[in-house]
């Protein structure tokens, strides 16, 4: 039997490669939508705890603003604000900001603020604080983050937005005062920003 010409093998290989590429592309296209949907659901579920006790009828992530620096919020990178509504009326803004001055770098933080300027909840999104020391800011490690629920610029009064050992109202973390100081400062700065900018936050169009 004569040898198969080399060009025929080449064509066969090219056809197989084209079929495989098409299969991969089709599979990617089919799954990409589902992956995006799952990611969106995950984000919604992660953000909701910072809006405890609020009624809202929009998705948390539906109305997003991304503010490039300089924006006046804590952190030198972009800040994100999700606007949350009930029956078309604003009920809260959810901030993603970076607290400066953490023990091991910036701490990415979620802060929910109701329209009356009170904190609806905070959660830690990302940090590099030390396990067993600064990492007790995480809700799965301790209740420390819950003490901010319902607080506002006047509760406690401005001079008391500190840990107790500095003469303030908030619990510290034993052996780790640097981390709480950074977070308390970032929450207060965010509340100040909200008080000054609530109208413009809700007046702007979505990203
Ligand atoms: C290895 C190591 C890791 C530390 N990690 C943290 C931390 O994650 N957060 C923190 O606030 N302090 C951390 N500290 C302790 C701080 O250096 C500081 O002593 C502590 O925050 C107490 O501050 P204070 O004396 O003002 O209360 C760490 C210290 C060491 C030696």
Provide a concise account of the structure shown.
The protein is α+β, with helices and mostly antiparallel strands and 207 residues long.
Question: Helices, strands, pairings?
Answer:
Blueprint: H1 6-47, E1 63-67, E2 79-86, E3 89-99, E4 107-114, E5 119-126, H2 178-203
Antiparallel strand pairs: 1-2, 2-3, 3-4, 4-5
The protein binds flavin mononucleotide.
Structure explained in plain terms:
With 207 residues, the chain is of the alpha+beta class. It has one domain (50-203). 33% of the residues lie in helices and 19% in strands. It contains two helices and five strands. Strands 1-2-3-4-5 form a five-stranded antiparallel sheet, with helices on one face. The longest helix has 42 residues, at 6-47. Flavin mononucleotide (FMN) binds next to α2. Residues 103-104, 129-130, 133-134, 175-179 line the site of flavin mononucleotide.
Number of helices: 2
The backbone outline, from C-alpha atoms, is elongated
The structural domain count equals: 1
Major β-sheet annotation? 5 strands, antiparallel
Low-pLDDT sequence parts? none
Widest sheet: strand order? 1-2-3-4-5
If you compute it from the alpha carbons, what radius of gyration comes out, rounded to the nearest whole angstrom? 24 Å
| Bound ligands, each once | flavin mononucleotide
Average pLDDT over all residues: 93
Order of helices and strands: HEEEEEH
Could you tell me how far the N terminus lies from the C terminus, measured between alpha carbons in angstroms? Answer: 67 Å
The helical percent reads 25-40%
The fraction of residues in strands falls at: 15-25%
Indicate the structural class: alpha+beta
Number of strands: 5
């Amino acid at each position: 039997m004569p040898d198969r010409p080399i060009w025929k093998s080449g064509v066969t290989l090219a056809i197989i490669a084209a079929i495989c590429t098409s299969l991969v592309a089709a599979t990617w296209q089919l799954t990409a939508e589902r992956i995006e949907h799952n990611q969106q659901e995950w984000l919604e579920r992660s953000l909701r705890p910072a809006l405890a006790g609020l009624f809202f009828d929009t998705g948390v992530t539906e109305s997003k603003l991304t503010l490039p620096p300089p924006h006046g919020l804590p952190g030198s990178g972009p800040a994100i604000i999700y606007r949350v509504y009930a029956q078309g009326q604003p009920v809260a803004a959810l901030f993603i900001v970076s607290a400066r001055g953490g023990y091991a770098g910036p701490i990415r933080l979620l802060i929910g603020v109701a329209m009356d300027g009170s904190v609806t909840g905070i959660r830690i999104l990302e940090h590099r604080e030390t396990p067993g020391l600064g990492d007790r800011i995480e809700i799965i490690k301790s209740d420390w983050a819950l003490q901010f629920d319902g607080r506002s610029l006047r509760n406690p009064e401005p001079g008391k937005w500190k840990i107790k050992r500095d003469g303030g109202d908030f619990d510290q973390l034993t052996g780790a005062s640097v981390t709480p100081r950074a977070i308390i400062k970032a929450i207060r700065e965010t509340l100040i920003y909200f008080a000054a900018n609530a109208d413009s936050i809700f007046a702007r169009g979505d990203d």
